[in-house]
Design brief:
The structure holds two protein chains of two kinds. Chain A is an alpha/beta fold. Chain A has helices at 32-47, 82-91, 104-110, 112-121, 166-172, 187-198, 221-225, 244-247, 258-265, 285-289, 297-310; strands at 54-58, 73-76, 97-103, 125-131, 178-183, 203-209, 230-234, 250-252, 271-278. Chain A has eleven helices and nine strands. The N and C termini of chain A lie far apart (47 Å). In chain B, the strands form five sheets. Chain B has a seven-stranded mixed beta sheet, with helices on both faces. The chains are: A alpha/beta, B alpha/beta.
């Protein structure tokens, strides 16, 4: 047992799916959020994560209600601010499993600064960007990832700008280390991606292309209805494509190659699925914040005495 | 060369004049080390057993243009036989390396008729005729103002020892002052050695030569001799500025996480912490912005480690959304705010107490939290230890409002003896009692216990949305009111546990009571003492808690004919009548007590002086009678 373990489990506990289920979701029927929630619960069960050692952190928005529907600890924070909170939780708690749920407005607009810096901190956590290309909770305003010319309540004549590319932006951030993409209509692939992310020692960022049946009706139908419009990325380091390999088109992709990752991130059609970018050499900020967490009271008192002496009048 | 030898060299030495206190200033262009000279003089004097108070004179830029009024940099050192509680009134002696920086001291009223000015006359023989003229004109002007100007060849003498006088005349000047004020030259040597310890031995040696050269020059060429006898403190002491005191308090409080973003004048807390904190196994997180700094802190708090975040007024403005979340989610947090001049970017390096109302009320909705204000360096240290415990007991943010005057002023305080009881206990990860909800508000006290991630059966979701006792989102009116009441009741509970504030002067009452908070306390009490000695029936009280207010204020106020708030934030003059805006504490106290409380305040960006306050008190008594 390593020195950073905080508790001794007397015996192995077995958890059931029900242990991870919280309040019933109130999202629209067929919203992509349901899929993500189910995959996350299944992952927790599969990994037998103790619910009390699992924390789901979110910002504000439709998707950010997700922690309420989990049976774990949760932190439904402020609009755009889930990542600083999650980093603070991680700072002194290596024993917790941390998931962050954020939306396209939450992450790429109001929280964009935190997003980039959290990627750079590269502290161990799994970050899920539930990207439905629209503000849902506040009712159909243009989000940073809304396609140009889409008519919204804030741009009734069509969104004036091309959307942010969250994948290319994330990959380009210094020290970003794990950037993947999923779609809500292929839950098996999402599940395997979560599994891969959870085994990763740094910040795993997963963008999930997602439907919004209410405000972006049918905007992904073309991709859903044609299996040739998605492409599985295959690599030994990547995400296990599972049974999809038998039905969907696959390409070899080396995620450790930055240029190839950037090229793949620009590809809109077909949608690349899996691990786009991996940099296992990236430094981990948690190594800095967790230094000394086992310092004894005696050591602390001795340091304090020595520090007072520095200012003492002799 | 020892002092005795110097004296022996000069048999016709003038007699030392004994003074109970003197105010000495060093002013120079930025980068010429006047601040170092002042700090050293302060430390040497404190080590000799004198009371001291130092104030930094700081330009807003790192390296402003030379020979400019706005670029003045330096230090004021008030040295007394007894404890010194404030920076005092006008200076008795000023060392100035050029006449322009000296002007800046006249501009702020820091100098009086008869102030001794030791001015470098190198400018008289400048190659630049404009500079020569500026110098001559200024000297004539200073003489008109009846200053006692004496030329001292700081630069010329320093050049005899080192090549670049800009990096040495400060220590030469320190030597000079040590001779004039009978400072222990051995202590001065130690201080110089310590100050330059990180530099090469060559630099240390050069500075020691400069120190002695300045000392000897004064002994041989100057007739100024003062002595400020020391009343040695009976207990061991440490010499710190308010920011270091706060940093030591943070270390002593058991806080493990300091999450900050650089902002003047708060940052030096984290400079020191960044060096010392890791030795205790703790961490200073420099976040990407003010918002992330408090967000990170709140995350650490949720995970069981009560953190501190450090900022100033503009940073507080950015943190308010998260502050409200911490109040709503009932997460303990210590927030240190070192106030500066506002609004907006304001006066970054100057003092003001303008953030009281924003600390109390700037968050969305009703957001009760604890607000404390240290008024001395010792309180800067102790209040952090108290704040961490209050934050945890009351599940709420605790704001500590310091200011730029406390932050940069150096003072001796009793050396604390570290106690294990100051530290936070390890996180309790035992099983949570499933029947206890995460917000089990006690109807009497509003208090409740919180589960920490890792505690089995404690699983709950923190949310900034209105919620019930279980932490579930709840929009029902009755639940919302109950929750607001519980959070508010916590302050009433704390107030019941507090004592009434102590009166400085006569607790039985009198003609006027000055009410203050924070760093002006020393100047207020000095003014009260002076006036009481003249038979004026005035007392003062310093509030340490601003939220909740300490109990019994109304009763205390009822014993005095007049109540006058004295503080460093804006207020309109009386003539504004109905449109008059009162100073910040005054506004709060008027609403809290319904007493007709008056105020006197200023926002000059410099500390209040005892003389200012004396005048305000007398004006008030005279015009009210």
């Amino acid at each position: 047992m390593s020195i950073t373990d905080w508790t001794l489990e007397p015996r192995m506990r077995e958890f059931e799916l029900g242990d991870y289920i919280g309040a019933a979701p109130r999202w629209c029927p067929s919203c992509g959020n349901h899929t993500v929630l189910k995959c996350l619960q299944k992952l927790c069960k599969e990994l037998n994560l103790p619910p009390e050692k699992t924390v789901v952190v979110s910002g504000i928005g439709c998707s950010s209600r997700l922690p309420h529907h989990m049976g774990t600890y949760g932190f439904h924070s402020l609009h755009g601010r889930a990542l600083p909170v999650a980093c603070g939780i991680r700072a002194r708690r290596p024993d917790l499993s941390i998931f962050v749920v954020t939306g396209d407005g939450d992450c790429c607009a109001i929280g964009a600064g935190h997003w980039l810096h959290a990627l750079r901190y590269n502290m161990k956590m799994t970050v899920l960007l539930l990207d439905n290309n629209i503000y849902g909770l506040t009712k159909k305003q243009t989000s940073p990832t809304t396609p140009a010319h889409t008519k919204t309540n804030t741009h009734p004549n069509g969104a004036p700008l091309d959307p942010v590319n969250p994948l290319a932006t994330a990959i380009s951030m210094t020290n970003a280390s794990f950037i993947a993409q999923c779609v809500d209509w292929l839950p098996e692939h999402l599940y395997y991606t979560l599994l891969r992310a959870q085994a990763y020692p740094g910040l795993a960022f997963i963008r999930i292309r997602q439907r919004c049946p209410h405000f972006m009706k049918g905007h992904l139908d073309a991709f859903i209805n044609d299996i040739n419009k998605v492409q599985l990325l295959v690599d030994d380091n990547g995400v296990d494509p599972g049974s999809l390999l038998q039905t969907h088109h696959a390409v070899e992709h080396d995620p450790t190659n930055f240029d190839k990752a950037m090229t793949m991130a620009q590809q809109n059609d077909p949608i690349p699925l899996g691990l786009l970018y991996l940099n296992e050499n990236a430094l981990h900020y948690d190594a800095f914040t967790q230094k000394g967490i086992v310092t004894s009271e005696e050591e602390k008192l001795a340091t304090l005495e020595a520090e007072f002496d520095k200012f003492a009048i002799v | 060369m020892s002092e005795n030898q110097s004296i022996a060299d000069k048999p016709a030495m003038p007699e030392r004049k004994i003074v109970s206190q003197h105010i000495i200033e060093f002013v120079s262009d930025a980068g010429e080390g006047a601040q170092t000279a002042g700090q050293c003089l302060g430390t040497i004097s404190a080590k000799m057993g004198n009371g001291i108070w130092t104030v930094e004179i700081i330009p807003a830029e790192v390296e402003p243009p030379r020979r400019s009024r706005a670029g003045a940099s330096g230090n004021r050192v008030r040295i007394g036989s007894k404890t010194v509680t404030n920076a005092g009134d006008q200076a008795d002696l000023v060392v100035a390396f050029n006449e322009q920086v000296l002007y800046s001291r006249f501009d702020v009223g820091a100098l009086r008729e008869g102030t001794i000015i030791l001015l470098d006359n190198v400018w008289q023989s400048s190659d630049d005729p404009n500079i020569q003229k500026e110098f001559e004109d200024a000297c004539a002007d200073f003489r008109n103002r009846k200053a006692d100007i004496r030329f001292v060849p700081f630069e010329a003498e320093t050049k005899k020892i080192i090549r670049d006088p800009r990096h040495g005349k400060n220590v030469w000047a320190l030597g000079l002052i040590c001779a004039i004020y009978d400072r222990d030259i051995k202590l001065a040597e130690n201080e110089i050695t310590r100050k330059f310890a990180k530099k090469s031995q060559e630099i240390v040696d050069a500075n020691l030569r400069l120190l002695h050269a300045g000392y000897d020059w004064a002994m041989q060429n100057m007739d100024l001799r003062f002595s400020i006898p020391a009343h040695s403190a009976p207990v061991p002491q440490i010499v710190v500025n308010g920011n270091i005191a706060l940093a030591l308090g943070i270390m002593a409080s058991g806080i493990e996480v300091c999450s900050m973003y650089p902002i003047t004048p708060a940052t030096s807390i984290s400079h020191y912490l960044a060096e010392a904190f890791p030795k205790m196994g703790c961490v200073v997180h420099q976040a990407e912005d003010e918002i992330a700094a408090i967000g990170f802190a709140i995350g650490a708090s949720f995970a069981g480690k009560t953190p501190v975040t450090i900022t100033s007024g503009p940073g507080l403005a950015l943190k308010n959304e998260f502050m409200a979340l911490a109040i709503m989610a009932e997460l303990p947090l210590v927030v240190v705010i070192v106030q500066r001049g506002g609004p907006s970017t304001g006066l970054p390096t100057r003092v003001e107490q303008g953030d009281l109302l924003s600390a109390l009320y700037a968050q969305p909705g009703d957001a009760p939290k604890i607000v404390m204000a240290p008024s001395t360096h010792e309180e800067c240290f102790r209040f952090v230890i108290t704040a961490r415990k209050l934050a945890e007991t009351f599940r709420t943010p605790v704001i500590i409002l310091s200011d730029a005057n406390l932050a940069t002023g150096q003072q001796p305080i009793p050396r604390p003896s570290p106690k294990a009881s100051w530290f936070a206990p390890p996180i309790d990860l035992s099983d949570w009692d499933e029947s206890v909800p995460p917000f089990e508000w006690d109807p009497e006290t509003g208090l409740s216990q919180r589960p920490i991630p890792g505690q089995k059966n404690g699983n709950y979701v923190v949310t900034g949305l209105a919620h019930d006792q279980a932490g579930h989102v709840a929009y029902e009116s009755s639940i919302n009111e109950k929750a607001l009441q519980a959070r508010s009741r916590k302050l009433a509970t704390l107030q019941h546990a507090l004592k009434s504030p102590q009166i400085h002067g006569d607790p039985n009452g009198g003609d006027l009571l000055v009410v203050g908070w924070g760093s002006p306390r020393g100047a207020i009490e000095e003014a009260v003492d002076t006036l009481r000695a003249q038979g004026i029936n005035v007392s003062s009280v310093t509030l340490k808690f601003l939220s909740p207010l300490e109990p019994g204020l109304k009763e205390i106020f009822s014993k005095f004919k007049h109540i006058l708030c004295v503080e460093m934030n804006y207020s309109d003059p009386k003539e504004f009548n109905d449109a008059r805006r009162y100073s910040q504490l005054c506004t709060i106290l008027r609403s809290h007590t319904l007493c007709d409380i008056d105020c006197w305040s200023h926002v000059r960006g410099i500390p209040l002086t005892p003389k200012d306050i004396e005048k305000a008190i007398l004006d008030h008594i005279n015009c009210s009678c």
